[in-house]
Amino acid sequence: MTKAKAHAVLVVALLSTAAVAPAIAADTACVSPTSLPAGANTSDPKAPFFIDMAGLDLKTTPPTRDPHNPNYPKATELPDGQVPSINSEGNFIIGPTHRPSPEAVAQANVPHGTVHTFIMTSADSVIYRPGMVRDDMPGCQNSAVNSSSTAPGDKSDLLVPASHPGSWSREVDVYVPAGYVPGTAAPFIVYGDGGRHSFFKEQVLFNVLDNLIHAHKLPPMVAIGIGAGGQDAQGSERGREYDTVSGTYAEWVEQEVLPRVEQNAHVRLTKDPDRRATMGFSSSAAAAFTMAWFRPDLYHRVLGYSPTMVNQQWPHDTALPGGAWQYHDAWSGPIKPNLTVSGKTVTPASASNGAPLIPNSPRKPIRYWFEAGDRDLFYPVGPLADGMHDWTAANEDMARVLAAEGYHYQFVFSRNAGHVDDATEAQTMTEALEWLWKDYPAPVSRNN
Fold first, then answer.
1. E strands, 112-232, where?
2. Distance from C-alpha of 406 to C-alpha of 367, rounded to nearest angstrom
3. pTM for the full predicted model
4. For position 177, which CATH number holds?
5. Span of the secretion signal (predicted)?
6. Residue 444 lies in a domain
7. What single DSSP character describes residue 363?
């Protein structure tokens, strides 16, 4: 049996034979590594798993990137406090001061949308039943990931034996704009890490929607915030949903979430992909792009803060061994037989190892706004030294390949900003949403 097949069999065994157990509550997060992993290749760009250290200041925690790194695409640096125009495209540098836009604050004279909340559980799911649970140490979030090892000879293949089937429940928040006319097929934006108990502060989004819809700068749209299935990163339900590079999550949303939204919030949602958008934060931002990439028949507009365009897909897929890193960069590591692990099924894969997805695919009808901070994540998992875990470098590379392929995009590099930076969100979300919907063919029709 080859090592790839043995690993695939191990994954299947973990998902199909272990006893169901509840997730362990993590009251506090363990401190994750933010420096170079042991044994990292920082000297030979032609060797596998090279980590590019150019423009990195390792004296800060987390490390700080220089936006004028010559390895990054050229960008326009804006005066402090200014954000890019909604009429512009390309790469921009903002900060270091991040004051909220006026639209990010609730206005007393503006009608407010209503928010409907319902709960979804794994017992009701077809696509994500059973769920995935990882056994972390009590009070030590992600400990099982930080203490994991990689497959022999392959630093890109993290082994997480502490994961097993389990159950999940999640909140779904549905914002319905003021004045919604029942029966109207509404445009909508769907975002991950939703729900009132997530780390994303949904009220900022709701305020921006209230104010921009009232000012006729956005169409009256529904916003659907879907909570993650649980935990984070490799071996978790959240990681399984958001970091998998396939159309599965988009199909789950379409088949299992949107019908519940229409039923519980008493709305009708459009089927037109040009009137649908996705949004996310960190791994859910990677999922937002993946939804549009694999299902452009469903979504054309994408917005992401600190997208996890890195090698975080788990289970490891030898057809895409670099995970989301392969959207923009060729995978550099040992070639293995192509196998695809999907749930409990292991099948031969037709995709070639190491082929970047965007440069090797016909241009898709995707309009993309995204952001990364100068202090975004840099190697948060100790065992990994694979050259594919620098969030800022990954998104700079996304900007490079999107420009080369002629995509409509706007990329914001935010100074004085960490991972999924709250202040940057409050400063930029107004402009980001206006840019995202700039060419929207309003008004809304009852028949679409």
1. 114-121, 131-134, 149-151, 154-159, 163-166, 169-176, 185-186, 188-192, 222-226
2. 11
3. 0.90
4. 3.40.50.1820
5. 1-25
6. no
7. P
DSSP 256: I
45-61 pLDDT, tens per residue?
Answer: 888 899 999 999 999 98
- What domain range is 255 assigned to? 6-436
**Long-range Cβ pairs for the range 293-296 (8 Å, 24+):** 293/327, 293/357, 293/364, 293/366, 294/246, 294/247, 294/250, 295/247, 295/250, 295/251, 295/254, 296/364, 296/365, 296/366
How many domains does the chain fold into?
1
Q: What's the number of CA atoms in the CB half-sphere (13 Å) around residue 290?
A: 32
Domain membership of residue 297 (yes or no) is: yes
pLDDT at site 7: 39
pLDDT digits (tens, 9 = 90+) for 141-167: 889 998 899 998 899 999 999 999 999
Residue 208 has pLDDT above 60, yes or no: yes
d(CA 136, CA 142): 6
CB 214 within 8 A of CB 221: no
Q: Of all helices (H) and strands (E), which one includes residue 367?
A: strand 367-375
> One-letter amino acid identity for 430?
T
DSSP state of 441: -
* Position 443 in a domain: no
Q: Tell me if 448 is assigned to some domain.
A: no
Q: Are strands 64-65 and 114-121 parallel, antiparallel or unpaired?
A: unpaired
Distances (CA, A) of 91 to 75, 94, 255, 275, 409: 5, 10, 36, 25, 8
State residue 321 phi and psi, 5-degree precision.
Answer: -65, -15
Residue type, 310: V
For residues 172 and 257, is the Cβ–Cβ distance under 8 A? Answer: yes
C-alpha–C-alpha distance, residues 280 and 287, integer Å:
7
